[in-house]
Amino acid sequence: MESGGLPDIASLSALIADPSRAAMLTALLGGIALPATDLARQAGVTRQTASAHLAQLVDGGLLRREAQGRHRYYSLANPDVADMLESLALLAPRAPIRSLRMSHVATALAHARTCYDHLAGMLGVTLADRLVQDGLLAEAEGHWLLTAHGREVLTAWGLDLSRLERGKRPLIRRCLDWSERRPHIAGALGAAITERCLALGWLVRIPGGRGLRLTPVGHDGFREVFGLTLDVEAPGTGHTASAV
To answer: Is residue 92 part of a domain?
Structure first.
């Protein structure tokens, strides 16, 4: 066990408090590693300024840096960093919408997005609600447990649950969604569900961010496998989700 005094919340808060660094961290909540040039663009700063900010975030343990050829890519250091940022988003005031583009981005993120590596937004919460309603997940003392029925359905869908359970990561964790204010599925299962949806083409990433778009194939897949009827209209045009 590491020795030392109380956790230094102030130094960690100072790292996140800078608007440019906060913008970079938020951009990386999509779970995809990005180069410094992309992060500089997200933060609205020069490449040189971005490099200085990124070095601070790496030194502070919030980011991981990997070299690929001449390029360096940055990602969140671990799921705990993503959890912290998502928790802060629950408490943070909403930024004012100053353009049509900002409005479209906000609507798309509220509809469906990645929260590090798992599905969030209206779609993520709706799916979690349905799995509980249909008995694939059981609630127990504020936690979700995978039921025998859940194992059967998810295995038939193509998930290797035995492999997920052998990993170091918790199988299922509830993650409180900042836009819906209700939990979605995190942990190894949440990541596997999202990966499977992307592999099947049910969801596609919206370029330039962490938003996800439901495809016609996904509309049919969610209905056939999970009993969800989801609107495939572009975010911002009155999308809805319902269980039937």
So the answer is: no
